[in-house]
Specification:
With 382 residues, the chain is of the alpha+beta class. It has two domains: 11-129, Adenine-n6-DNA-methyltransferase TaqI, Chain A, domain 2 (Alpha-Beta Complex), CATH 3.90.220.20; 153-342, DNA methylase specificity domains (Adenine-n6-DNA-methyltransferase TaqI, Chain A, domain 2, Alpha-Beta Complex). The protein is 35% helix and 20% strand. The chain is built from eleven helices and 21 strands. Strand 3 and strand 4 form a beta hairpin. Helix 4 (132-171) packs across helix 8 (295-304). The chain is elongated, with a radius of gyration of 25 Å. It starts with 10 loop residues before the first strand and ends in a 7-residue tail after the last helix.
Length: 382
């Protein structure tokens, strides 16, 4: 990389000059569902949509305006998402994706009730493009980060499947409803007998000075944060000041604690990586000293639990409460079996954590490099 080159060869243009922005309106019936279909939140299938086979940047049209996709495989979109027909003589598709990702498209929102973007607004978006060879060089640098991140995520998916398979092999054939079938030394217990279940409340939001969006304060876990985490949670969007922790007696969640969301985003499970705090929609499973259970066992038990069977109402959010969580039954294996199982499973969880830490590091480096590359402050030789 070179930081000494000038930007005289960069071209000022608009998004309209390099792409044609489209979205599918007609919703005619399609018979072939071979291809994935994207909308503004995630990937879905079996939706009437436009079919494209060229590389494209997919831009949210409504709702989540910062959730962009880059696709090279054949795909479909629905009408909450723009797709782009890119002039590849002017813009490298992946470079364009990185460039648009570096911008805050939410600032272009035209409707506050339902966050929305329009083709007219996007078409006027100013761009400053380097020559195509330099775009490709920049795209190559950034894609090397993304490829490594994606590889680590795939490894974690495999490792998590291994962890769940091991749990089922060791304990899956037993049921709390058939205690007579348990091996000698095993028993059926209650979660609250093995763990202290802590649930807390959010300090008054009107005292906004107690909330921060950066360190050095204590990380405050919200439903959004737990949704964005995987097996382990590292990042939060807010921090709580130390004086707020003291004033409202907010319990500290110790490192390596299994936590569970039971409102709104129901049954999302993760493990803390440092001392943290949380809102009132998240339960903390603090394993008691006298319990023989491990965090890996608690995590895997919750992951394998059919929580739908715990509630008979369709209004699942309002049905879940702390009493239900505390009174959940679970199998307590013998000390010997738990010790043996923990020796087998801990390396799997440790590798997931190490991979996630590397993802965090790579993402941080990429995010710091992205605006410098997009602005020309750092140049790539080509």
């Amino acid at each position: 990389m070179d930081m000494s080159q000038t930007m005289t060869d960069w071209k000022e243009t608009t998004l309209w000059d390099v792409v044609k922005i489209k979205y599918w309106k007609d919703h005619k019936k399609l018979e072939d569902w071979e291809y994935p279909c994207y909308w503004s939140w995630w990937v879905m299938r079996k939706v009437d949509s436009f079919l494209s086979k060229d590389p494209s940047v997919l831009i949210p049209r409504k709702w989540t305006l910062t959730n962009l996709f880059y696709v090279t495989h054949p795909f479909r979109t629905v009408d909450t998402l723009f797709y782009t027909l890119i002039d590849q003589d002017l813009a490298d598709p992946y470079y364009l994706y990185c460039l648009l990702s570096s911008l805050n498209l939410a600032d272009l929102n035209v409707w506050s009730a339902v966050p929305s973007l329009t083709t007219n607004v996007l078409n006027q978006l100013p761009l400053n493009l380097p020559p195509l060879p330099e775009q490709k060089a920049i795209a190559s640098v950034l894609s090397s980060f993304d490829d490594k991140i994606e590889l680590l995520r795939e490894q974690n998916l495999t490792l998590e499947k291994i962890a769940q398979t091991l749990f089922k092999e060791w304990f899956g054939k037993y049921s709390v409803d058939r205690p007579e079938e348990l091996p000698e030394g095993w028993r059926v217990g209650v979660v609250s007998e093995e763990c202290d279940i802590n649930i807390w409340r959010t300090p008054p939001r009107k005292e906004s000075e107690r909330f921060r969006d950066k360190q050095p304060w204590v990380k405050w876990i919200s439903i959004k944060d737990i949704w964005n985490s995987w097996v382990y949670i590292f990042n939060t969007s807010e921090y709580l000041t130390e004086d707020a922790v003291e004033k409202f007696r907010v319990p500290i969640i110790p490192v390596d604690t299994v936590i569970l969301s039971f409102k709104m985003t129901v049954w999302k499970i993760t493990i803390t990586t440092e001392k943290m705090l949380s809102n009132e929609a998240i339960a903390h499973f603090n394993i008691r000293d006298e319990s023989n259970l491990s965090k890996e066992y608690i995590y895997s038990h919750l992951e394998n639990l059919d929580f739908n069977s715990l509630w008979s109402t369709s209004s699942i959010v309002t049905a879940i409460n702390s009493s239900i969580i505390k009174n959940m039954s679970l199998i307590i294996p013998s000390d010997k079996v738990i010790t043996e199982y923990t020796k087998v499973i801990q390396p799997v969880f440790k590798k997931i954590k190490l991979n996630t830490q590397e993802i965090q590091s790579l993402s941080k480096t990429r995010d710091a490099l992205l605006p410098k590359l997009m602005s020309g402050k750092v140049r790539v030789r080509f």
